[in-house]
Amino acid sequence: YINIYSGHTNNWAVLVCTSRFWFNYRHVANTLSVYRSVKRLGIPDSHIVLMLADDMACNHRNPKPATVFSHKNMELNVYGDDVEVDYRGYEVTVENFLRILTGRLPPSTPRSKRLLSDDRSNILIYLTGHGGNGFLKFQDSEEISNVELADAFEQMWQKRRYNELLFIIDTCQGASMYERFYSPNLMALASSQVGEDSLSHQPDLAIGVHLMDRYTFYLLEFLEDIHPASKTNMNDLFKVCPKSQCVSTPGHRTDLFLRDPGSVLITDFFGSVRKVELTMETINLTDPIEQLESGELQKEMHTYADQLPVSEIIHQKPKQKDWHPPDGFILGLWTLILLVFFQTYGVKHLKHIF
Amino acid sequence: EANAVIIPQCSHIPPGRRGCLMETTVSPNKEELVIRPLHSGDIYTSFQFRTLWETDFTRENKVSHYRLFPKSLGQVISKFSVRELHISFTQGYWRTMQWGQPYLPSPPGAELWVWFQDSLTDVDGTWKELTNVLSGIFCASLNFIDSTNTVQPSASFKPLGIGNVTDHQIVCTENLTPWKKLLPCGSKAGLAVLLKSEKLFHSSFHSQAVHIRPVCKDDQCKTTSWELRQTLNVVFDLHNSGQGKNEWSLFKMFSRTLTEACPVASSSKIYIDITDNSQGEQFELSPATPLLSQAVVLGDRRTFSVYDLTQQITFGTICNVLKLPVTYSAHAGDMLRPLLHAERYVAGYGLQTGEIHTLMYNNHPYRSFPVLLLDSVPWYLRLYIHTLTVTSKGKDNKPSYIHYQPSKDRVRPHLLEMLVQLPPNSVTEVTLQFERALLKWTEYTPDPNHGFYVGSSVISSLVPSIVAMDTNNSRERPLFSSFFPSKEESSYFVRVYTEPLLVNLPTPDFSMPYNVICLTCTVVAVGYGSLYNLLTRSFQIEEPSPGLAKRIANIIRKMRGVPPL
């Protein structure tokens, strides 16, 4: 019995851009174009964790502020008017990325920064930046290796944090990042094989940088044709960007995936399917609001506080500092002094003191 | 306690009604837009949206019915026992000398000031959780706020405040999107329709803020209600954004037009400052409006043309386009010079020491007034307080109050508060020397050569006003003139922020660990290897191999059967 249906009930997306500095504009544009497609196909902002390592839209070098373009001649603004970036700037680190995946975040982290997936979630993970054979560089100061990534996915599998996972990476030598995966239900796509570089698409002379990478550019073109009800499957996604367009050879890995890729719909990962159950029963709502006792409450005269009470400030008494018990260093020092004293002058003096 | 403080309490409810959980029948939502052409040719626009809500978060039963007040903020207030909260995100620096005073001052970057209820015991823990929750709501990196850059000023802001003026925050559409979602009408109707991010961020100054505080409901001020104000201040530079002619309209500035007022707003107005245009010589408004209003704001009496969006006749013309053919000649001398102005810069050379100079200008011809200067310097700039000097007009000016809390490495920053009397028509200079510290190599940001930011200084002052201020704080007034309540008629409260500083810390060479490992391994390998060989190698005597002639001779001898040489 081969399962052709996915059996997932919710969709999540983790989209990461790992590069900083203005000349890496294209990586931010890559991530934002995937974000845009994923939002268009139905995944809400609360289910997307977007990490951008630098701000290109309001960067002072951007001639058109609050925009990030993916096509030259400024045809398509992928930044849009309704974008929510969950991790920005210095927060995009290897540690935060692994914590999001494994769910081990400090308790005060807000919901929008967490990946609250369960065992019926299909997760899309998209990484882009500068990479090499077996590693991906984060912000020019640290790397994540393919072994760490594979172990993180295994942790996710052990904790039942995903049903199926699609991993897409657009970096140089991207195929090396999925070589070490060993957990079930993982499908991976990369923009180039080991030993090859992923190339960028086209520069825009008005902005002055390259706008997109080739693989993601053709991926975006492919996704623009998908709508929430389309039946395109993964085999079409593997054909995106052949060598003639991409110059590098995109690769994919499906041996860990239990279903046949031909039966996996694109919307299983890029779109969000919500199952609605209609019922004809009526449900009685109880009245939750209680009657207040009409007691007499104290009414005080309130006034606005004085913003600059000069006379009070001048005559302010200094705050009493709390008394702290002496810490270990002081206690040790005094013990040493006392010991030396009694050693020199003899123990017989002790009984005169105590 | 001598200071009167506001204690929000549930008002007295007659029996039969459902208590605090029901909101008031009067629609408490007000929105307004003020447009002021500035003398430098820029246009200053200020949006304010206000929502009032009568409820009591301090009572035990949780509030669960939210109508116009956003639920995310209401839950934040009740969970963290917040009494007052001010958060602002600003991009750009407000140029006081060219633009005058803003209606609501804000420093570049992000700023968060919170007052907690007296019943709160663990302030530090609550502060940390609150900053994390707010960073999630506003998509901002507020979670970098921790004890190393938070201060508790003793006098600058109202007592018991905890605050933080963060250095460098990039403000972009991702901060504007959640801000717009907090508005009752969202960005679908009313004035919020004009908020299109592409035009808003293409400006010289952009600041958005959220202020939550309890306010008096009526004259007697026996009961209070919660007020949420969302403000957005933008200064457009029309020459920069490609407008060749000296005319502007709502469509040209915001690339959107107004079609209807927000249905839940009780008042929705646009005010255009026409004080400098009393005879109509500088510009002309179209469509003209008969409504005029006068207000005393920032110590000056200004006249405004009012467009009321709740009246249907305002929308009579096509797309409500306002054209203003303006001819700006050099009227710089006519502008009222701001009475209080401040600058700050870093002096010195090299990467070891430096000096912070703060200049405060008092431009009043004959009155002096006190200012309170609050400086919060991060711990990695070690301040030498014994070098603090305050001079006015060349002479020493002793402050009447100084509060200094020294920093603790990696725990808290320096806090310096001083109350200085500024003599009339003078410049007061505050200088302070510092030394730069070397950070641990993991504490550097990924781009350390950019430099490290020092937050703005805050200068609070009561400035003498030309016109008598209105001290009756409960009367209905336009929002832009009622933010800081005035206590006396002869002066008004002003807060000025200086520029943030950017200092370079001595940056190590981050490739050094790699270099050190290579060098050490090479030295160890070569040194140890040689020593090991010397100690364990045994030498054997070996005959050197004979030359070519001798070898041939030996071969011939072997063939003859004679012993070799």
From TrEMBL, chain A:
Membrane-traversing stretches: 328-347
InterPro entries: GPI_transamidase (IPR028361), Peptidase_C13 (IPR001096)
Pathway noted in the entry: Glycolipid biosynthesis; glycosylphosphatidylinositol-anchor biosynthesis
Pfam family, one: Peptidase_C13
GO molecular function terms noted in the UniProt entry: GPI-anchor transamidase activity
Residues at the active site: 130, 172 (nucleophile)
Keywords per UniProt: GPI-anchor biosynthesis, Membrane, Signal, Transmembrane, Transmembrane helix
The keyword Transferase appears for this protein: no
GO biological process, one term: attachment of GPI anchor to protein
A single GO cellular-component term on record: GPI-anchor transamidase complex
Subunit structure: Heteropentamer. Part of the GPI-anchor transamidase complex, consisting of PIGK, PIGT, PIGS, PIGU and GAA1. Interacts with GPAA1. Interacts with PIGT; this interaction, via a disulfide link, stabilizes the expression of GAA1 and PIGK and links them to PIGS.
Family: Belongs to the peptidase C13 family.
Listed name of the protein: GPI-anchor transamidase
Annotated organism of origin: Echeneis naucrates (Live sharksucker)
From TrEMBL, chain B:
Gene Ontology terms: biological process: attachment of GPI anchor to protein
UniProt name for this protein: Phosphatidylinositol glycan anchor biosynthesis, class T
Species of origin: Echeneis naucrates
Signal peptide stretch: none
GO terms for cellular component: GPI-anchor transamidase complex
InterPro entries, alphabetized: PIG-T
Pfam families: Gpi16
Organism superkingdom: Eukaryota
